[in-house]
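Revision sheet: structure tokens.
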Amino acid sequence: MRIPGKAHKIYILLAFFLLNFGALGQLSGTFTIDKNGTGSKNFISFGAAVSALTTSGVSGPTVFHVKQGSYNERFSIPSITGSSTTNTITFQAAPTNSAPAELAYNSVFAIGTYAIRLNGTSNIYFKDLVFSAPSGYDYRYIEMIGANSNIGFEGNKFRVLSPAQGVGFDAVAVGLSYSISSSISGNFIFRSNSIKNFNDGLRVFGESNTWSLDTCLILNNTLDLYGEGAHGVEVTYFKHCEFSNNDIDFGSFLSTGGGMNDFTKFHTSFIASNNRIINTESGIHTHIDLPDTVPPPSVEITNNTIKSDRWGITIASLNLDTSSTHIGNLKVVGNTIDVLGQYIDGCLFISGVNCSSGAPGIISNNMLSMRNDGSEFYNVLEIKHSNELKVYHNSISSYGNAAPNLAHATVEINTENLSSNFSCSNIDIFNNIISNTTGGKLISVDGVTSSALMSFLSCDYNNYYGDFQWNNQLFKIGSSLYGLAGWSSSFQQDANSIWGNPNFRDTTDLHILSSPALNAGTPLGVFKDIDNQVRLLAQPDIGADEYSLSTYRLKVDMNADTANSSGVFVTGNFQNWQPGSSQMLDSGGDGIYEYDVTLNLGDTLLYKFLNGNSISDTE
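Predicted:
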């Protein structure tokens, strides 16, 4: 028996159900997370939002505006259907908030605990949120496991509340769990975040040289870390990484382990610039381990300030043999490195860099200072088995209170002459200040015979300074020791170099004052110094600093007088009182005659104006 109108009602109800399921099944657009909110586009928790994503997926860019307040939650984000580099998923603080939107999972953290887990997900971004954690150890606040890709954090604050010494060990703000197979690919962005009181800041691993991050950007972050043996940033297996404009402080744990920043196993390029890294064990450490089928990668480390306990910067190709790929492009410029610990390894260590004559590696305008107070002695700058490097305009100093010891050097150069290794030659050391006041050597060369030295190493226009009691033992090749004169005559090195106290401002501030290094260099195409000041073209200063010059404009008003037909001049101690050599000009046509005088800092200027070119024409 047919009931009129019944089937139509069933069809209408079914259509209504399908429409609503479809709307829930394909999230797209802007939603809110507000525990006090209502409406079809509001979720009362992160967990509820993630549940909807997991069940329904996305069909377009999806943004969750998180209302202010504290959310005590723990959740995991798996792979989301429909997400892509276009259909991204973003959790961010609501733009109308007047207080923080805070995820505050406040349960006691223990081994293996996490607050947020990214489990094989992609295209997920967090912006302008606060992530708070109690004290604990061996946990990852945000844990990444599985094959994650295209993950980003921007403008967030990560903090451990009320830390205590020893608490927080191996507590990672954003990292992976070693107990679960983990990797990340695609792009990873960590920008303008702050991390406070965690033991470790950021640890991101690709899986292998084959499955690695495409791009890793770590920019404009502040890390104030707490605890010993920490990592500020650790990135492994990536194609390209830029680490720039970050401020990292390992706090008061310098003497008990400090921290480090590792960037390893990359195979395209690594850039680190304008970072401030203090109270650390190791400033920036990077190395590669690649087969010879991969093109040589590049390393560019510029304008960083590092105060460390043990290492400043290390750059290395782990394998030196010809069957491996080595770092082939190198730029280390404008860095200030102070290594201050008792057990130290050096300011700058370079190993296995194989550049070409057409594109040599550049090491210039760096200030490297190392304090030797203990019984272990290492080298300030060490170059191990590398090829085609230009070491120009650096200021390199070893100082301290250690007993004199020839076991260390300001500059150490060595090579491993194995038939399986790539060949080394053409290390040029020009226009450098090289100082050692702790009884060590200035330059030490190992692995090169005396007869081969001149084709391997070239040194000139350097300013040397060392302890006078070791005056004849400051240059070493093999087991033989020389003074500057013997070194120069025996190996045709440093014919134009000089000896003398460079007169640094401070043991760790290697800017120079009145110094023998002034105007004693040779032009090398390094047109600016470490402070971006223009160098003199014909006779630049030796070292990283071009001594500051000041320009004074002298003026005389001649409107009440008649200018001499031979001109208006100035004479003074700046030009040895030569009356007709410095003519003033009325460039503005207003009767005001001018002349520019360039002086060194601290100079006294004496002068007279002359209405004419004779000393008797005093104005």
